[in-house]
Amino acid sequence: MARRLAALLFCLLALPSSAGADTDYGRIAYVTDRNGNDEIYSTRIDTYFQETNLTNNPTDDWSPAFSADGLHIAFVSDRDGRPDIWVMSWDGSDPHKVTTGDAGSADSDPAWSPDGQKIVFSSSRGGGSHLWIVSLADGGMSQLTAGDGTSPAWSPDGSRIAYSSDGEIRVIDADGGNDHQLAYCDCTGAAGAPTWSRDGSYLIFARDDDAPSTARQLYFLPANGGAGIPITTSAYRYDHPTFSPDGYWLAFDREDAAGGTEELYLQFGPGAPTTYPLVTGPGRNFSPSWGPKPPPPPPDTTPPTITINRPTSNTDQIDVYTVGQIVLADYTCTDAESGVRHCQGNVPSGDPIDTRFIGTYDFIVFAADQAGNPIYKRTRYTVVYPFDGFAAPINNGALTDLKAGDAVPLKFSLHGAYGLDAVTATTQQLIDCATRAQLAPSATAAGSLTYNASQDRYLFAWSTVKSWAGSCRSISVFLRDGTSHRADIRFTK
Asked: How far apart are CA 41 and CA 51, in angstroms?
């Protein structure tokens, strides 16, 4: 396949573009059974891109039809137990069903309106094979033809629909009026698979040769009708013609009339002397539909999204950790457009953040997407001493009864020797014994501070006076990390 595409690409580049136009080679969707069932693939003839399986479904998918803008493909699938019309994006994403009906009927042969708002299709609902139109906006359906109709093709201006009926090519106005035969032939071979030229001035369709021949040829037909002019004459069965987006190339499927495998071929214009192989295996390859390249996506100007779970990004409070605590950073960067190129914080997500020293720290994550859009996100966290409360005889969170005039021993550990300047101040104040509410301004608490290395314990001996008997007072120890710790004492005689 790659060799055939390479040879074809060389031919494309060697041939002059008509009138110097900017050529759009677009994409070709087609059906292949190389996976054991009918799947819809796509390929391009102007690159070395590999073929892509768009449906990748265990049931059968067939009859692809590109929308005029190249963004969507209508197709037939029986993945819900009945042949229905489905639509997917040009890359195979977002497949969704647009028709449904009785289990005994089937829908087939979808074709888009030029504005992409409707699809005409053939259906056996109600008996026969009539043409129907479904609105993609609301799912409403209406029957278009009273007689049989298959292989519809919407004209580029949206006014008419060509189709096959009883072996002849007919045309009907899109509103159901002026239904008449378009192609005339003094022959017995059945005609079908009409397709409009990109400018709507003519059609190409397929017709069986008269018996005993088993060949099928492609014909040229003016848009106002008449006798079709054969543009192929060989012993093959040609079918499903489709024009390139610029209108200069014609793709179709072809198989040996004596029996063989369907393959995809190209001509540089209807009736051109040279035919180029496009997809010749593996398996059968048939029913091509040629659509334009989807328009390029708008430039990506949106930076990625950064989510910081740890340290918290909550703006109402700052996470507080203790010295030496193991805290694993947790953050992610996402970008739905071009993807994330960089996502880096102070440490990689999942690694410990720095908690070696007390203080308040910024945690910053930088991200950039593949388009180069940068973004920063900042959060903060605080590291404090690991204070566990005061040791006995202090009752943490409750009143402690002690004798007035004795020294009050405030013993505590910070789980490490941080020097006596770890305590920055001590204050005391009169409080209500029942409510423990403040009754007077705070004042410096007199006393002495020591540190016992063997016990890893600080001791502040608070000096009290006998006259405090019968009152309650609180004492607060302020630490260099910005925290304070309070004990409430009820003094007795």
From this structure: 7
Model confidence band, residue 330 (pLDDT cutoffs 50, 70, 90): very high
Residue 299: C-alpha distances to residues 24, 106, 294 (Å): 21, 42, 15
Answer for the pair 31, 65: CB distance below 8 angstroms, yes or no: no
d(CA 432, CA 168): 105
Q: What is the pLDDT of residue 311?
A: 94
Q: Could you tell me if 356 and 324 are in contact, meaning their C-beta atoms sit under 8 angstroms apart?
A: yes
Q: Identity (one letter) of the amino acid at 158?
A: G
pTM for this entry? 0.64
Measured distance CA(144)–CA(154) in Å, rounded: 13
Give the integer Cα–Cα distance in Å for 345 and 340: 14
437 Cβ contact partners less than 8 Å away, ≥ 6 residues apart: 431
Q: Which among 22, 25, 21 has a CA at the least distance from the CA of 11?
A: 25
> Residues 364-388: pLDDT tens digits?
999 999 999 999 999 999 999 999 9
- For 11, phi then psi, to 5°, come to -65, -40
Average pLDDT for residues 431-449, to the nearest whole number?
A: 96
Q: Which of 202, 267, 193 lies closest to 234, judged by CA?
A: 267
Cα distance between residue 481 and residue 374, in whole Å: 35
The predicted structure's pLDDT at residue 173: 97
Rounded average pLDDT over 182-189: 91
pLDDT, one tens digit per residue, over 445-470 is 999 999 999 999 999 999 999 999 99
Burial of 329 (0-12, 13-18, 19+ CB in 10 A): buried
Whose structure tokens read 């009736």?
A: 271
The domains located in the chain, with CATH, are: 2-291 (2.120.10.30), 305-384 (2.60.40.10), 399-492 (2.60.40.10)
Model pLDDT for residues 203-258, shown as the tens digit of each residue: 999 999 999 999 999 999 999 999 999 999 999 999 999 999 999 999 999 999 98
The pLDDT tens digits of the residues spanning 82-114 come to 999 999 999 999 999 999 998 889 999 999 999
CB proximity list for 262: less than 8 A, separation 6 or greater: 253, 254, 255, 284, 285, 286
